[in-house]
Amino acid sequence: MYLQLNEYYGMLAYIDYPGDRKIITSLAELINEYKSFPGALISTIVMIGGVEINEDYFKAWVSITGSRRIIEDTYGEIWSYIKGVSGNNDIVSLIMRAYEEAGDLADVIALSNALKLFLGFNIYDLGLAVIYENPLSVLNGRRVELRRGKTLLMKKHLMGDLKLNTALILQGELNDKVVDWSNPGVLPASNEIGDESVSDPAYTLLSLNIGLTSKPSSSELTLLNSQLPAGACTGQVTILPLTLSNSMVMKLIEELKKQGFTTTATGISIIDAVKCIKHDL
After folding, report:
1. What angle do helix axes 68-83 and 88-101 make, rounded to 10 degrees?
2. Are 205 and 272 in contact (CB under 8 A)?
3. Is 52 contained in some domain?
4. pLDDT single digits (tens) 125-143
5. In this structure, what is the dihedral angle of CA atoms 93, 98, 100, 102, given to the nearest 10 degrees?
6. Containing structural domain, residue 273
7. How far apart (Å, rounded) are the C-alpha atoms in residues 1 and 227?
8. Residue 5 domain-assigned?
9. What total of structural domains would you count in the chain?
10. How confident is the model at residue 5 (pLDDT cuts 50, 70, 90)?
11. Any residues with CB less than 8 A from the CB of 273 and at least 6 apart, and which?
12. 2 found inside a domain
């Protein structure tokens, strides 16, 4: 079985790196960013992919983690998928092998981004997700045992200087789905520090048995960002990064329009987002 490759006409990504956040609209622009600063690869969220495979992506990846076997396996599996030699089950096996072998969560993020960039889908779209302890909680002395849904694998991975509990989970057959363009298929678990919530909106929705995907199933999207004013909810709920400025949201809307999407942007609450997803709003 194969997932449908990119049905749109271009690519769209967001580099969520402090001090240098930007919307990216072409592979050439993205690769130039990686050549200037390879670490931007781990801060990338690919929203729309399915572009021609590019070796410079993998060169940037190896310069970050040095995990040559994982990187070579990923490169080879992507080519096999493109040629029709391998299918979804082979990609799932690749993800599970890489998850177990990787010492750094950066390898898992880079793998998911490679799938999205060159095949048009990421870990989410195979019915999986990788969750990890929220670093803010760990820094404040609160550890979390991750057990959600059907846990396939559990391990500790490095993120920077922190060793975090992580889990590769099976999302299951969920009828209600939201597009998560705020994470690359790898997302932090919700938690609180004292009375302060440090929750991730996508994780909150996943906890409510709403599936996460990176591929819109509709050309009409409701872009969700808590910093925006509340507004109408008329399309498939799509979570945006919290760090997107209003001007970048406007640019994103313009780029999505070029690719045939109709969008509304709103800052409705998670409760109202759930109602929207379940068609009660």
Report:
1. 180
2. no
3. yes
4. 999 999 999 888 888 888 8
5. 180
6. 12-277
7. 40
8. no
9. 1
10. very low
11. 178, 201, 205, 224, 233, 237
12. no
